[in-house]
Design goal:
93 residues; alpha+beta; 30% strand
Amino acid sequence: MPALEWREAARADLLAIIDYISDDNPDAAQCLKDDIEAEVAKLPERPKLYRAGRVLGTREMVVRSNYVVIYTEDERGVMVLRVLHAAQQWPPT
């Protein structure tokens, strides 16, 4: 099976999102984290399932309509680049 890797920025994004949500609702934050991690874990099996990204060579997986996982894929596996709220600008300017 192809490898799955997370860039440090993607992990930091996810933790920041969870931290923000957990201030109001820790259970919802944990549920969102679990959902994102579960969906990302499936990417190596079907990396082309999600739409082409706005940046050439990337793909975007929408999780729960407000969160987008940006990743690249090649013959070695999948690299998760960022996890962003849909309101955040991508690509960064």
